[in-house]
Amino acid sequence: MTTIEEAPRLEETTLGPKAGGLYRRQNIFTGLGFGIFLGFVGWLTAHAFLQSSNWGTDMVVTVTMVGWVVGFNVGVGTFNAPIRWLLGHDQSYEDELYAAGVGQGSKRYYKFCTDHKVVGTQYLVLVMVMFAIGGTLAMMMRTQLITSHSSFLSPDSYNAIVSIHGMLMIIATIIMVSGPFANFIMPIMVGAKDMAFPRLNAMSFWVIASALPPMLATFVLGGVDAGWTTYAPLSIQAPAAMDAFSMTMITFVVSVTVSGVNTIVTVLTMRAKGMTLGRLPIFVWGSVVGSALSIYAMPALLLGFTSMVSDRVTGTSFFVAAGGGTGWLWENIFWIFGHPEVYIILIPPVAAMMEVASTFARKPLFGYKITIAGFVAVGMLSIMVWAHHMFTTGWAPDLAGPFMLTTELISIPTGIIFLCLIGTLWKGRIWTRLPMYFVYLFLWNFIIGGVTGIYLSDVPADQYFHGDMFVTAHFHYTLLGGAMIAATAALCYWFPKVTGKMLNERVGKVSFWMIAIGIQATYFGQFWEGFQGMPRRVAYYDPIFLHANQLTSVGAYLLMAGWLVLLYAMIHSVRNGSIAPANPWHSKTLEWMVPTPVPLVNFLVDPVVTSDPYGYGEEGSEGYVSSHSPPARSEDELVPLLSSDYPISGGDR
Amino acid sequence: MIWLVLTVAGGIMGVVAPHHLLTSLLSNDGTDVWKTMVFFTVLAAPVAAFVYSVAIYSLIGWRHRGNQDEPPEDGPPIRGNGFVTGVWLITSTVLVIVLLVWGLSVWSAQQVSHPDTLQVEVTGQQWLWTFKYPGTGVESRELVLPVNRPIEFDVSSVDVTHGFWPAALGVQVDANPNVVTVIRTTPDRVGKFTVRCSQLCGLYHSFMYAPGSVVTSDQFATWLQSQGATSSAADKEAQVSQS
Fold first, then answer.
1. Which is the most buried residue in A253, A295, B9, B48, by most CB within 10 A?
2. Quick check: B176 and A393 CB within 8 A?
3. Residue A616's domain spans which residues?
């Protein structure tokens, strides 16, 4: 830990350039500029050297995208410290302060900033941008499907939109809680002053930010026409957009892996005194399990997409039947990533929502330890169920039974998590503020999503429903109705801490009802289509499915309008809302014990934890943080820590 | 009380809804799908109803009423209940075993191959289906099946992965290039249906469907004969157009 006393000594002993210079001028715009420049260099190079070869467009697009990603990150400053080290210098203390955003006001949000709270806020904005794009794509699909043979979209643009909506939403939901809240809130929850690796933390954000433009570039490169699962061999034949898509995925893997390692190391090594593993708030456990699953699953995706690029660019044939490969290999690799991914999405928001449930029921969490066991068991089982996505592919019919077993076993730990949630609500003095509304909506939706998942786990029933709209409705109920609603509960809960303002709940409740009703209409319509036998990913359909589709489209418009109202409520509250007190919910976890806005080093005095944070209604429950270590700093030093323009101590090394 | 009402409501929905929502099913496997939906919904109804009724009862019974300020007192410090957890665990385990036994028995019954099976070779290509009846020389864009005779579909593809999905028959398998995948079923009712493609297969995936029908065995024999005459002509035509 860098303390004030050590700081001058650090400054004397380290080498580094003086203030000013190129290093101090980097921000998102230098990133954009250098990314475009290096992308252009890549494009020129590929053209100059590869003209004669038959690799053609795929190579050009791949090299250009590599140039963009590397260039953007060099330009924004991701590699500053490693480059310094290669040149034989270390970061000076002054550099660390600068990198943490000290004295830069709101400009630090546009820079490579190591402060975990800035990174969390950046993630929050990025996730919302992704949801806005993905939601717009969904609206375009629903507009196309409002009549059976609409001419709103051409079939190839429809396929491109289906694919990008899918994968963009998957990426957005993977980072929607592990980005904003595991960065902003989680370190404070465990009593840390920052993440374990602040620079890697900033890197994980800027790397994933640089992955978004290649994904959107697919629309002008011919469109990804193979769905978000990009099954081979269709994806091998796809237009050059597929190369940009693969580059997005590879970049995304880097970001999520780095952030997962960072989360786990932070929890293992940066906890406050007395914060034993058995006293960690449940959200911290959820983040750790989600991160561990990421570290397991992401390499499969990396392997898959590098092989995919290789097949497309260099003529290997891992997935091409004509060259001795097989599409089933791709399907296996993809789902070995793809099923844990569902729980990477789901576990952190559900864990965050259990904090909400405990706080607003004014009760301890029901079954703290079995909840953790539930998360761990779900996580472990989730790596053994991937082939239930392949029941109807014809691959290994003898494995249908075992995979049906593991899939149905997952409902046992999932049931335990449900029990803990309703056990927490039982007899609670339920405080019906907006976050609690979303907890109830989660319960409603996730039961439906879970039960319909059991139908799909049954091989004979799956033979009817696989590849049809029933599946679409099922996973939207779990991922949107479940995970995203849980994340919204968490967002409303932590909104005062993150923004310093209270959320306008009057407008928020209007949006709640629009979202709640919109979800039911949209996905009931899709279940109906699924029962009738409408395949997924079709731009045109048999008129027998018309009424169900019209219901779905109307519901989807209502749902999107609901999200926009919520967005309005948030923006309005950030601008005009009343100032939030440090602990508006009278919650007991550590993030509510620090001032709002949170000082750069989070804690003015190091907390010492004496119990778990769920002591509602218990004698002496005020004593979660019963003793403090003696203040390490004098009054004069503490005062500036309270200002939002952090003058003290930078990267926490 | 809430629980009972919700359970009954869920159970009724489970019995009634699949029948109205599912497409008209023409085979034993289709009927199995319907039975599975009913059975699972009836099993799930009490569990879902329990979760909902606890949540609703908590909201009705112990909600903090009045203004939006913090409740004056906390709830009771219930940190867990071994008995409830145990009952819950045992119930869910038993339910999972029941589901598994049900699923496996239905599944294994489907895997049995019968004598006197009619083979149909199904080939998917962008973006149409072709059905060949080995031994007869018949090749058609329409899937015609005799009622009450076991069918074996040998499914393959000439280009990308397609999904052979005659929904009304309650079976489905992918058509992969260079591989033959097999599914079996026995149509047990006469009627018309549509074969659709269930895997995104490119530009005109939406239009990849073929008409299908289950007919009496007499009608089937007549149809085969009528096709036999035309298909040899069609074969020649196809050869000409390919070259």
1. A253
2. yes
3. 592-642
